[in-house]
UniProtKB/TrEMBL annotation:
<feature type="domain" description="Carboxymuconolactone decarboxylase-like">
    <location>
        <begin position="24"/>
        <end position="106"/>
    </location>
</feature>
<dbReference type="InterPro" id="IPR003779">
    <property type="entry name" value="CMD-like"/>
</dbReference>
<dbReference type="GO" id="GO:0051920">
    <property type="term" value="F:peroxiredoxin activity"/>
</dbReference>
<dbReference type="Pfam" id="PF02627">
    <property type="entry name" value="CMD"/>
</dbReference>
<keyword id="KW-0575">Peroxidase</keyword>
<dbReference type="InterPro" id="IPR004675">
    <property type="entry name" value="AhpD_core"/>
</dbReference>
<dbReference type="InterPro" id="IPR029032">
    <property type="entry name" value="AhpD-like"/>
</dbReference>
<keyword id="KW-0560">Oxidoreductase</keyword>
<protein>
    <submittedName>
        <fullName>AhpD family alkylhydroperoxidase</fullName>
    </submittedName>
</protein>
């Protein structure tokens, strides 16, 4: 099941930039929504990234997993917090979430290695 989540993250970042040139209003709206939703509020950004990761796992979105593992780490989430998020996602999403939870764990391990 080995996937290169760093490469996936970088490729999607590039593709989203390209999409922004073709759909500027759509991407502007999405980026504003993302910023408003993820920025610190009552819930800190780290918590919001962990919630987004749990949702990404349950809806089985590879690219979302790459982004939210990466961004959760950048927001200060620990490996243990990410693993606990995976656990809750498995509870809510059952067997399919278990498979994508394994992929999120794999992404976490890859991003941790890159940070060292």
């Amino acid at each position: 099941m080995i996937k290169d989540y760093s490469k996936n993250y970088n490729n999607l970042t590039k593709l989203m930039s390209e999409l922004a040139t073709k759909l500027p209003e759509t991407m502007k709206g999405f980026n504003e929504l993302h910023k408003a939703s993820i920025s610190d509020g009552i819930l800190p950004s780290k918590t919001k990234e962990l919630i987004a990761l749990g949702i990404a796992i349950t809806v089985r979105c590879d690219g979302c997993i790459a982004f939210h593992v990466h961004d959760a780490l950048k927001a200060g989430a620990s490996s243990e917090e990410i693993m606990e998020t995976i656990s809750v996602a498995i509870l809510m999403g059952g067997g399919p979430a278990l498979v994508y939870g394994c992929q999120a764990m794999e992404a976490l391990e890859q991003f941790i290695v890159l940070e060292q």
